[in-house]
Amino acid sequence: MNQVLENLIRRNRAAVLAVLVALGFLLVHAVVFRPALARYRRAAQHATDLGVPMDAVTTAPAASARVAELLTDNSLNAAVAEEQGTSGALTAGLLDDITRLASKHGLEVVATEQGMVTQLPGSVQVRAHFKMRGPYAGFVGLLADLARTRTLYVVDRFAIQQGGGAAGIELWMTQVILKRSGGRR
Questions:
Q1: What is the pLDDT of residues 158-178, one digit of tens each?
Q2: What is d(CA 11, CA 105) in angstroms, rounded to the nearest whole number?
Q3: How far apart are CA 29 and CA 65, in angstroms?
Q4: What does the radius of gyration of the chain's CA atoms come to, in whole angstroms?
Q5: pLDDT of residue 58
Q6: d(CA 106, CA 104)
Q7: pLDDT single digits (tens) 34-85
């Protein structure tokens, strides 16, 4: 090796070592961290495209007027929701609404049974069980009306038993009422 080059390296040993360490870190960054960063950015962009921004700088997109109206129509003040859930007013409302819709479609409500009322931090879930008799077409019409209402109903399950012209129908369902902070409703 060249004597002048050896002396230059020996005198600047710390600088050469620093350059070699920097090159090592650059290599590790290029091989390990850059692909991980690219995966994170793709995932964050995909989440933002789905409407769930992951970036702290990005604000959540505002809900459309239709969604905001739906949320407002299906929510109560948290204290009112807990009070009405405990008193049975929410269950009575669910039983009344479904009975009214069923009779509109020619279904006879034979029995109703209230279910559990579950108080969750952000919502109240009101359950009920219905026994009905009537035509299958009436039950399909009831389900169609439930789908068109602006109320958050969940049909948990149903059972149909055909017999002598009128079907025996059992329907288990849940209504979800959201809790909100703010003014009374």
A1: 999 987 778 899 999 999 998
A2: 96
A3: 46
A4: 32
A5: 61
A6: 6
A7: 998 898 888 888 877 776 766 666 666 677 788 888 888 888 888 888 888 8
Neighbours of 70 (CB within 10 A): 16
Tell me the C-alpha distance between 162 and 133, whole Å. 10
Q: Which CATH number is associated with domain 67-180?
A: 3.30.70.60
Is the separation of the CB atoms in 112 and 169 below 8 Å?
A: no
β-strand pairing of 167-180 with 75-77: parallel
CB 117 within 8 A of CB 126: yes
What does the domain layout of the chain look like in residue ranges?
Answer: 3-49, 67-180
Q: How far is CA 185 from CA 76, 78, 131, 166, 176, in A?
A: 6, 10, 32, 41, 16
User: How many CB atoms lie under 10 A from the CB of residue 113?
Assistant: 11
Q: Token pair for residue 33? A: 């961290």
Distance between CA 73 and CA 6 in Å, rounded?
82
CA distance 179 to 69: 15
